[in-house]
Structure formats: C-alpha cells, structure tokens
Specification:
about 110 residues; mainly beta; four-stranded antiparallel β-sheet; 11 strands
Amino acid sequence: QVQLVESGGGLVQAGGSLRLSCAASGSIGGGNMGWYRQAPGNQRELVATITSGGSTNYANFVKGRFIISRDNAKKVYLQMNSLKPEDTGVYYCNYATWARQYWGQGTQVTVSS
C-alpha cells in the first residue's frame, strides 16, 4: 500500500510563491509522481509529473512558472512562482504505476488578487 501526504499549501497574494511537498510511504518503486489540482466546480487537472528518472512534463498553463522536482523515490516538490488567482484550488499529489494510482488528501492553495 502507498500513502501520500501533502504539505505547503496556504494563502498567498498574486505574484507570490509557494512550495508544495509530498512525502510517500509504502511500496514506492519506479512509478511516476505528479501534482494535480482541482478548482471548485472544475474537474481535476494535471499540473506536472516527474518520472523516476527525472523527466518532467508540465501543463501549458504552468510552464515557466512551476517546477516539479524529486529528491528520491519518496519525496516530490512543486515550486510555484508568479502565482495567479486562477491557480487557486486543491492540489493533490499522485503516484502512478502501470497497475494503479494513488492520491494524497490534497492541500489548499488560495491566491488572492
């Protein structure tokens, strides 16, 4: 079993920065880790992913502003810069293998204008 725990969310003004962290426990192997977000009334959407080898993928709306990193198999971070009010939402950590995927409980990010 895999458990994911996010931290680092909060309230920030537009233009500010936040750093999200995700700590994984359990049977973490070579799967991908990533961040997704969900705003009220919207579907959950991909923000960024990173493979065990360090290859990254970003949604177009965060390219150049957010950076995903992974310092070992069990910790992943999301550095969010130049935040906009439309970045507001619950951010979820994700771990995915070919067999299944796991989700954290989410952390709230609120960007005020």
